[in-house]
Amino acid sequence: MLQIEWAEMHMPVVARFIRERFEQEKPLKDVRVGATLHVTKETAALVRTLVAGGAEVRLAASNPLSTQDEVAAALARHDGVEVCAWRGMSEDEYFSCIRWVAKWEPNIVIDDGGDLHATLHKEYPDVAGRVWGGTEETTTGVIRLRAMEKEGVLRYPAIAVNDAKTKTMFDNRYGTGQSTIDGILRATNILLAGKIVVVAGYGWVGRGIANRARGMGARVIVTEVDPIKALEAVMDGFDVMPMMEAARRGDVFITATGNKKVIRREHIEVMKDGAILANAGHFNVEIWVPDLEEMAVSKRVIRPNVTEYRLPDGRRIYLLAEGRLVNLVAAEGHPSEVMDMSFANQALSAEYLVKNRGKLEPRLYMVPREVDEEVARLKLRALGIEIDRLTEEQKEYLSSWQL
Predict the structure, then answer these.
(1) What biological-process GO terms show up in the record (predicted)?
(2) Residue 172: CA count within 13 A, CB half-sphere
């Protein structure tokens, strides 16, 4: 409970402003909310706010290694939340907990990565057809929902919380940027200054990581497949090159693409002795671990969250956090302050879905602009910052084509 208290002290938007209103209005009264999220102290703040709004919540993990066990226990013991999550779950255990949430027939689905959305549609289509709506926390999950919408199989309206400006511009950039570096340093205790750090992907996550690494004195290389993002990285002052070339130079490699096999056999074959591999994307497929397993002649855990793979020629490659999210497995995930905005979007999007039940088509929606702006206003309020407002004359000027 003390960890949750610490998080909530730094999450005034979710844990104070929204929760106080939810306690009074009960906008989620008797609503079953099924959630698959990283079970951390910050997630506890969101869950407790949903409960304050009248919701019944079932919570499962969105990663087998990210659960903070003491937080899961506290939610179950003190808040009456049903939780199916523990650190070190097997893959079968992980998906059994997701099925446990799906079979409960939730009204609202809150997901982080898309596994709950996908499980509902693949294994429980009748249940999916009765879901009022869902939300999605991550880039990876939004990609999966967008594919489902394109194929015409999405059974309920879903809100891309990840794409809210108050989420992706802050959580993805500042949150992942800081917490990824935190995870790498906790796992390895290496000095970043002077190291060549290769960042795969220059979306908001990649931008954050690259800038934080540079701020600690690293020499940063960016790899990209998108010409616009690659050009942006160049203009931001980073070296940009194909992964095959970067693989020969890098000391530390960090994947942040949302795709699979970003680092694979041909890249590992040319890496330096002692190269460190870390993943900041949602799933453990960006660094293709099966290739490492096949190539290695020996393997050992040399430090917590650091596995050494020795190759036939004697070179050693170090994989962090088993290729899973290094910021959550080797550290504590995003700082509470940035998750405050992300989870504010989750809470308000859940409320929006309940209020608009039956009015939305089964497709992917952006977070309503008014919700996004409300989160920003509340965060500024929490920071004690005031901003200007347009005068009526200014509003008229901006809405007219007349000179």
Answers:
(1) L-homocysteine biosynthetic process; one-carbon metabolic process; S-adenosylmethionine cycle
(2) 25
Rounded Cα distance between 167 and 133, Å, is 19
127 neighbors 105 (Cβ within 8 angstroms): yes
CATH 3.40.50.2300 assigned to 2-167+333-382:
no
Start-end of CATH 3.40.50.720 domains in the chain = 175-329
Q: Which residues are annotated as a binding site?
A: 40, 112, 137-140, 167, 171-172, 201-208, 224, 259, 280-282, 327, 334
CB atoms within 10 A of CB 228: 9
Please list the residue range(s) of the chain that carry CATH number 3.40.50.1480: 2-167+333-382
Predicted confidence (pLDDT) at residue 163 exceeds the cutoff of 80: yes
As annotated, the binding site for NAD(+) includes 138-140, 172, 201-208, 224, 259, 280-282, 327, 334
Q: Residues annotated as binding site for substrate?
A: 40, 112, 137, 167, 171
Dump pLDDT digits (tens) for 370-380: 999 999 999 99
Please say whether the dihedral angle defined by the alpha carbons of residues 9, 10, 13 and 19, taken in this order, is positive or negative: negative
pLDDT of residue 392: 96
This prediction has a pTM of: 0.91
CATH number at 175-329: 3.40.50.720
Q: Which pLDDT does position 301 carry in this prediction?
A: 98
